Amino acid sequence: MSAPTTCPASSVNKTQDACPLTLVDQEPQHTSLASAVENRPTTRNEGGCPFASKAKDDIKDMMTQSYVDHPITHEVKISNLNHYLPETKSKKSQDFLSDPQLAMAMKEGTKVIHSAAENSVFTKRFMSGTISIDEYGRYINSLYFVYKTMEDLLAQHKDNPLIKLVYFPYELTREKSLMKDLEYYYGKDRVAELTDFKNITPAVKTYVNALKDAAEKNPALLIAHSYSRYLGDLSGGQILAKRLKKHVLKRDVTDASWDSYHGLEFYNFNHIRSPNEFKNLYRQRLDESPVTQYTKDLIVAEAIYSFELNIALFDEIQALSDSKQLHPTVDYDDVESIDSALGTTGETKHAFLPNADWLVGFATGMATFAVGLSLYHRFSDSL
């Protein structure tokens, strides 16, 4: 039995009977693999090269046949195969959607992760009013870094065609509001340290870096974060504010302090007349935004990611609380005792504690009053 014919494609020395795919004496022009498959011989040597044949001239003619002349090119354009390549698949369509419905897509796309966020331990405790004032202080401290970064990036890319549609800094910016709240809970002298980016926690750092990465990849992705943050603040945030007033700040609905936003400036959108009307406008702008299907999918995916980042932030606060690593807020027991002594309302009570000058002045005044009263009695007795 003769030795089986082997394919010499892997051999360094090309022989006369080599596989035609390794021909070096002439370079094929416009080689078509499809034509090679369609016209290859139906018989083959057992165990040998599937392209081996004695009809070498026919094979050479086949290999040099222009792909333009082959009938398969009338059905499949070579360029049409490009969208299967990784670098071009994501860019297969650059056409803007006629009806993108971006807001609806984000709402539907984040339903599952939104539910997961609502069921985190910290969120449940927040909604039930069982979080401590130190935990809430840590919460707004974390949010300060998130909003500071997001709002700086939005301002930097405000001329982006998509961002400019929903860029409302006058109505929405939260950085200054959060700063006021931090001063309320920690005192002005501690805010500089608490808002130093050198002191951010791991989950917050991940959140901040994610915002920067999104802006670098495609500034339009910032829309996903502004959507999940601002619309959430205008919706569920208002419910949380009432929980905080009642359970954390211990304000009574019948007191004048109930309508105050002291310590809750974060939820005070005083430049928006009607939150519902504004939210409808915001969603309408998103639904009319000029996006391709690819960009739309990216934004929805980023919106989902924003919820994941928030869940990580909630979990971190819970872990810090469990391990007793939270920064202490001001002593509200002292504040309430001062309020009772002076007959002040909850609306103004916080102004007394962090102001050391006031306390010194008050003590000095009381001492002066005592000395004066003593002198009065002394002189009155001698009369």
Question: How would you portray this structure in words?
Answer:
Helix 7 (133-156) runs parallel beside helix 11. The protein is 56% helix and 0% strand. With 383 residues, it is mainly α. The N and C termini lie far apart (147 Å). The protein contains 17 helices and no strands.
Write the layout of secondary structure elements.
Layout: H1 33-39, H2 56-64, H3 86-89, H4 102-109, H5 111-118, H6 121-128, H7 133-156, H8 169-172, H9 175-186, H10 188-194, H11 202-217, H12 222-234, H13 236-248, H14 275-287, H15 293-322, H16 332-342, H17 356-382
Organism: Mucor velutinosus
Catalytic activity: heme b + 3 reduced [NADPH--hemoprotein reductase] + 3 O2 = biliverdin IXalpha + CO + Fe(2+) + 3 oxidized [NADPH--hemoprotein reductase] + 3 H2O + H(+)
Pfam families: Heme_oxygenase (PF01126)
- The tally of beta strands, per DSSP, is 0
Approximate helicity band: 55-70%
CATH class identity of the largest domain: Mainly Alpha
The global form is globular
The CATH topology of the largest domain is given as: Heme Oxygenase, Chain A
What are the segments in which pLDDT stays under 50 over at least 5 consecutive residues?
Answer: 8-12, 17-28, 72-80, 334-360, 366-371
Q: CATH homologous superfamily name of the largest domain?
A: Heme oxygenase-like
| Helix/strand structural class | mainly alpha
Tell me the CATH architecture of the largest domain. Up-down Bundle
Query: What count of structural domains?
Result: 2
Catalytic activity: heme b + 3 reduced [NADPH--hemoprotein reductase] + 3 O2 = biliverdin IXalpha + CO + Fe(2+) + 3 oxidized [NADPH--hemoprotein reductase] + 3 H2O + H(+)
Protein name: heme oxygenase (biliverdin-producing)
Keywords: ATP-binding, Helicase, Heme, Hydrolase, Iron, Metal-binding, Nucleotide-binding, Oxidoreductase
Pfam families: Heme_oxygenase
